[in-house]
Input
Amino acid sequence: STGQSDARGALIVLEGLDRSGKTSQSARLLSHLNGLGYPVESWRFPDRDTAVGKMISSYLTNQSQLDDHTIHLLFSANRWEKRSLMEAKLKSGTSLIVDRYSYSGVAFSSAKGLDIEWCKAPEVGLLAPDLVMYLNIPPEKAAERGGYGGERYEQLEFQKSVAKYYEMLSDPSWKMIDACLPLEDVEEQMKEIVLDCVVSCQKGKPLTHLWL
Ligand code: FDM
Output
């Protein structure tokens, strides 16, 4: 194969605790890749614009109460409802920079006490990221960054527990980024890693599925 017909966009996921800098870095990576002429979109989960996303948003802002299993499945359903569009975008050559994905789903629900394998099950069959970048920051430091916004999970003790589950989920392919560094340094590191990934997907690296 020349590889040309298998060229596709890259599925790039940013993970990390609340206030680790994922959202600012997503924006910077988006404009970087755009500037280089690569088709790219920035996505995030939860996607609060869908019907399921509205239920999630109401839960996160404490306007509704849901059983832990129920909200877990809604977060997963929110990824499933975007799955076919995600695949179409990637196959058409558009790269996606995704702020949170299944790893947030499993880490946050496991931190509440749900069984980790039970949490992973509904994620099986979703597209596997080509790259996971973990913005690593001690929970105490993240909490100092201008404080939390007051959503349901933005509490230090809970974030500490989430960090432990992220560690359990991580594998050697994850790129660990020191999120305590200045924004610009973090950005430089991430740009290089992302570009490598975009290039390898352009060369036709096959798409795979969770759970890896
Ligand atoms: N969150 C996010 C989950 O608990 N499960 C999930 O599957 C996802 C994607 O939702 F506290 C949590 C993580 C965070 C909250 O995320 C909202 P943003 O990034 O602050 O919107």
In short: The CA atoms of residues 47 and 152 lie 17 Å apart. DSSP finds eight helices and five strands in the chain. The chain has a mean pLDDT of 96.
